[in-house]
């Protein structure tokens, strides 16, 4: 079995030397430089940037690991580099204030954030949302930078739910059309997986998505470590497609994330238990299919913990009230039950087992 790749002190981080409040009309990102390590496989997370003086940016040259690609992105010159741990590189720009980050808006995510932040039950557990702004004729979501004020935080982006695609996507034209590009993606993960017929005509989107989930902890446990950064030295980096014992690999990531400090672990468990309690009281949560959403774990320099819900780009209203506790594998393909709470409880249990 392949050994996970190593990220060698991969990226330095961004500092705005004179933080100011966000100005809706002025965005100096055009003259800034940005470095980042990005996950491109299904990740849309607004991670933000931490703060420390500029240092050399080093990335071990191992390129692609299965379907996950890591790469450096850069804009123009400035005094400080920027770290983007997850998300599509063209989806984020810097706000004038380092307290905020701008994420390219979509109608789905804007509507979900508006509804979630107005739900009293979710107050304090959803990433802060301060409306939208326009940059170069495009609309961006104004989101709180969860790493503000930290020089060397540990970061875990954990995706929740047993399903990473919307149930009603099967109604979309072309969803069940065999595609050669998806066949090639599947072969990169496991050349023996496609059937003889699929090798000839291609793989449908539903088949590919179900297969991809079966290769991670998502399908059984309802969560997966989607991205992480651990400060200081060489650290094993989780790759969600290459381990034979996925849950043990996830545990290894969680141990790194909490610095193997059981006091920090207990703080994380308390934050997640609070999120669980809030979600169970939330009208928004019970009436939305929550797919591809993350809980971002940030462990600060002094060991404080901050966990918030983010990534609502696939969160859509449901046709019926959802429990989020039904095993997706036992349901019809059109059920909007997503197994979110199954994943949250499994994540809490996994933290507790460390």
Description:
The protein is an alpha+beta fold. Helix content is 25%, strand content 16%. Strands 2-3-5-4 form a 4-stranded antiparallel β-sheet, with helices on one face. The longest helix is centred in the C-terminal third of the chain and has 19 residues, at 262-280. 43% of the residues are buried.
Produce a short descriptive summary.
This protein has 354 residues and is α+β, with helices and mostly antiparallel strands. It has 9 helices and 12 strands.
- Could you name the ranges where pLDDT drops below 50 across 5 or more consecutive residues? 1-82
Strand order of the largest sheet: 2-3-5-4
- Strand percentage lies at 15-25%
- What's the number of helices? 9
Which outline best applies? globular
Rg, please?
A: 20 Å
N-to-C CA distance: 24 Å
Features:
354 residues, alpha+beta, 4-stranded antiparallel beta sheet, 9 helices, 25% helix
Describe the secondary structure blueprint for this structure.
Blueprint: E1 6-8, E2 92-94, E3 100-104, H1 107-117, E4 129-135, E5 138-144, E6 154-160, H2 180-189, H3 196-201, H4 205-214, H5 218-221, E7 223-229, E8 234-236, H6 246-257, H7 262-280, H8 283-286, E9 288-289, E10 294-299, E11 305-310, E12 316-317, H9 340-352
Antiparallel strand pairs: 1-8, 2-3, 3-5, 4-5, 6-7, 6-10, 9-12, 10-11
């Amino acid at each position: 079995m392949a050994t996970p790749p190593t990220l060698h002190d991969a990226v330095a981080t961004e500092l705005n030397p004179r933080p100011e409040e966000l100005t809706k009309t002025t965005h100096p990102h055009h003259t800034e430089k940005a470095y980042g390590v990005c996950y491109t496989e299904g990740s849309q997370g607004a991670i933000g940037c931490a703060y420390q003086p500029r240092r050399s940016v080093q990335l071990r040259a191992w390129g692609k690991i299965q379907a996950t690609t890591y790469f450096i992105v850069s804009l123009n010159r400035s005094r400080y580099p920027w770290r983007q741990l997850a998300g599509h590189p063209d989806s984020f720009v810097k706000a004038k204030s380092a307290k905020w980050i701008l994420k390219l808006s979509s109608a789905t995510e804007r509507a979900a954030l508006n509804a979630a932040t107005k739900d009293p039950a979710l107050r304090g557990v959803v990433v802060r949302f301060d409306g939208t702004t326009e940059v170069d004729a495009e609309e961006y979501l104004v989101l709180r930078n969860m790493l503000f004020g930290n020089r060397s935080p540990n970061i875990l982006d954990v995706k929740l739910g047993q399903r990473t695609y919307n149930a009603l996507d099967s109604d979309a034209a072309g969803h069940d059309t065999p595609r050669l590009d998806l066949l090639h993606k599947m072969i990169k993960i496991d050349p023996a997986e496609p059937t003889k017929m699929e090798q000839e005509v291609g793989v449908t989107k539903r088949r590919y998505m179900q297969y991809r989930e079966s290769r991670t902890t998502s399908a059984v446990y309802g969560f997966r470590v989607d991205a992480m950064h651990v400060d200081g030295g060489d650290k094993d980096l989780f790759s969600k497609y290459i381990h034979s014992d996925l849950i043990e690999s996830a545990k290894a990531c969680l141990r790194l994330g909490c610095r193997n400090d059981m006091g920090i672990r207990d703080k994380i468990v308390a934050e997640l238990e609070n999120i669980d309690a809030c979600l169970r009281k939330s009208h928004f949560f019970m009436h939305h299919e929550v797919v591809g959403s993350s809980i971002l774990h940030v462990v600060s320099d002094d060991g404080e913990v901050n966990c918030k819900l983010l990534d609502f780009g696939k969160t859509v209203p449901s046709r019926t009230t959802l429990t989020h506790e039904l095993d997706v594998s036992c349901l019809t393909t059109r059920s909007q039950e997503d197994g979110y709470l199954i994943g949250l409880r499994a994540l809490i249990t996994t933290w507790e087992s460390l």
